[in-house]
Structure formats: C-alpha cells, structure tokens
Design a protein that fits this description.
heterodimer, A: alpha/beta, about 35% helix, globular, B: about 120 residues, about 80% helix
Chain lengths: ~270, ~120
C-alpha cells in the first residue's frame, strides 16, 4: 500500500501572473519520508496542496505509483495544521469518517466492515488514543487532536500521507513526543510520507531526505540525504545532526536573500528613529 | 436570515472541507456530511436570534393593525384606560419570549452536546 511519487515539471502560476512554482521535478521512493523546507512564501504548502489535488497546477504531471493523478483522492490523504477535525463526531467517529464515504464502501467491498473495525481500533491504540475514544475533539489538547487527524488520514489506507505543518501549532515538548510517535507510525505503517515544515530540526530528525525550496518562484534548491539510522532523543544533540541542521538553515537563509540578520533589523529600526 | 445562514456556512473551516476531499468525499457528501453538520449549530443560533426579532415584529404588527392577539389586547385596554390589563399584556409578551428562548436553548444543548 505504499507508492512512489514523481513530480514532472510541476508549475503554478496564480491568476494575476504571480509565479509560485517554477518547474519542479522530484522523485520520491516508495515508503520514504521526505520533508520539504524553505523560507516562508517559497511555495512549499502550495506544492503539497498540488500533490493532494486541492490546488490546480499550471503545468506538469504528478505520478503516484507510475499513474498520473488529477484532483483529490483517497490515495493521498492530508493532515492539516489545525481545525480539520469534525467537532460533532467523537474521536472514534472522526477516525472512521472515511467509512461513511461511498468511495470507500464501493472499493472495499461488503466484507470490509469487520476489517475496518479492527483497523480503527488498531489505529486508536497506535496513536495512544484508547483512553479518549468517546471524547469530543473540543475536550482534547492540541497534540491529541493532531493524533486523531493522523489516525483519520491513515484509516483511508493512503498510498501517500501528506502533512502540512502538522505540529506547527504545538508547543515544543508536545512536538517532540509527536516526532517519536510519527517515526513509530512510519515503521508500523510503512507509507510514503511527504511532510512540509518550517522547522529544520524537525525535518532533519524525521526525514530520509530534506528538500530545500527556494522562493520567487519556488524551485528545488538542494536535496539533502539524512544519513542517521537511529532516531532517538540523543540524536538531537549529535554534532553531525547539528551540523546538518545548520547547513540546511544556512541554505534557507541564502535562498531567501538574507545574508545576515542585522540587515533586516536595521531596516526595521530605521523608521522608528 | 438568508444572509445570516449564508454567513454561517461560509464560516465552516476550510480544513474540514479539504480533509473530507482528500479522504475521497464527493461534493454531495461534503455538503451533507461536512458543510451542513458543521454549520448546523451556528444556523440554530441564527434561528434563535431571528425568532426574537420575529416575536417583536409580531407584537408591533398587532399594535398597528389587527383584531386579535396580545398587541391588540393591549391597544384595546389602553383605549378603555384598563392599566392593569395593559401590564398583563406586557408581562405576557415578555414571558412568552423568555420561555421560547429558553426552550430553544435547552434544545440546543440536547442537539449539540459537543459544544461544551
């Protein structure tokens, strides 16, 4: 149930002529975890939304498992930063939401109900949600809500899991817990994951490869392969880890045209004086 | 009220709709399973508010032109200087308004228990 994703010359020009993405070519191996980072406004979210089919592309092709895709579909589910859960459904009902959709009932056949039942309970346990199975989303913390959103996206058995800054609204401690959880999910579910973030540490810690996008217009600047085998808390303090993180951060700064932080600060200070 | 309902619907978070879309929902399913469900509590709020307006307008209309109803009763009592009857009418109008509003509030709690 895992697939490769290939982008061939994908561009996006918004009405009015603003070029958000210049031709982007990218090949993502089945089962790999790719993080996309870049300065704000570099089009990383737009790129992810195009892969999801939520945003139209101006040209180019997207192949999932070798087959071209167009528009949104259950093979590419997405986890959003916030506000995507259905507040009128309990945790378990949210996770099972896709079972109410015709596309799933039709494709999965009649005998899939028991199997879906099993899978939803397995996901509930995998994400550590067993205690809050019957709670409303409004009763949960931000981290728990994102766990539900991830479980709901996995319930559809996507070939590719897309994540758009899923931990952006969480505090640092919760985020670290979620990082280890998502690595656990990756080894348990073995799905291709494309992850957009502005947090370089997060990207290096989680991904097999980190893609740096340069802005105006968005294009692939560099692709770093992350060599670390074991992803543990200690890795965050490893000199190689820190060096790689620093190198990627420098790349993002360079692509954004920021040579030093002082330029921006002096420009801010000038009108006040 | 149509405008207010339209506003309620447009306030449904985009992420809720897009999440359904990536899960494979059709447009009809998004309307029935997401948009309507998500906007329902706000629509109910709108209904509760507009019922207050409607009640006011009804009494006002009775005061101006009617030959039955509370507003008309108050007007008739005024004509015959029956001040006690006027106050009965006023208090009744207030009570009926209060009771319907509280009934709707209770119904709201029953219908939308997730809104803690």
């Amino acid at each position: 149930m895992t697939a490769s994703v290939v982008l061939q010359g994908v561009t996006k020009v918004f009405p009015g002529g603003f070029a958000a993405l210049s031709p982007i070519d990218l090949a993502i191996d089945p089962g790999s975890f790719v993080a996309i980072v870049g300065a704000s406004g570099c089009g990383k979210s737009t790129l992810l939304r195009i892969i999801a089919g939520l945003e139209s592309r101006s040209s180019g092709r997207i192949l999932v498992d070798g087959a071209p895709v167009d528009g949104p579909g259950r093979a590419r589910t997405m986890v959003f930063q916030d506000y995507s859960l259905y507040p009128w459904l309990t945790v378990m009902q949210n996770i099972r939401f896709c079972r109410a959709l015709r596309a799933h009932r039709r494709e999965d056949g009649r005998h899939a109900e028991a199997e879906a039942e099993r899978r939803s309970v397995a996901l509930l346990n995998l994400m550590g949600l067993a205690r809050v199975e019957h709670a409303w989303p409004s009763q949960l913390s931000g981290g728990m809500r994102q766990r539900v959103a991830i479980a709901r996206a996995l319930m559809a058995k996507p070939q590719v899991l897309l994540m758009d800054e899923p931990f952006g609204a969480l505090d640092a401690q919760t985020r670290e817990v979620m990082h280890d959880l998502i690595l656990h999910v990756k080894s348990a579910e073995k799905r291709t994951i494309i992850f957009v973030t502005h947090d370089v540490e997060e990207a290096v810690y989680l991904a097999d490869r980190v893609v740096v996008l340069a802005p105006h217009p968005g294009r692939v600047d560099t692709i770093e392969t992350i060599p670390f085998a074991a992803r543990t808390r200690e890795l965050r303090l490893d000199p190689h880890f820190l060096a790689l993180r620093q190198r990627i951060t420098e790349r993002i700064r360079a692509t954004a045209g920021m040579t030093g932080a002082s330029d921006g600060l002096s420009a801010l200070a000038a009108p006040v004086a | 009220m149509v405008l207010m309902i339209a506003e309620d619907t447009s306030r449904v978070p985009m992420a809720q709709i897009e999440a359904a879309r990536t899960l494979g929902a059709s447009n009809r399913e998004i309307l029935n399973l997401v948009l309507l469900r998500s906007a329902l509590p706000a629509m109910f709020d709108t209904l509760r508010m507009t019922l207050g307006f409607a009640w006011t307008y009804l009494v006002v209309a009775e005061l101006i032109a009617a030959n039955s109803g509370l507003g008309f009763a108050i007007l008739r009592a005024q004509r015959f200087m029956q001040t006690d009857r006027i106050f009965v009418g006023i208090i009744l109008i207030g009570l009926i308004g209060l009771v319907t509003d509280q009934a709707l509030r209770l119904l709201q709690k029953r219908l939308f228990p997730w809104r803690a």
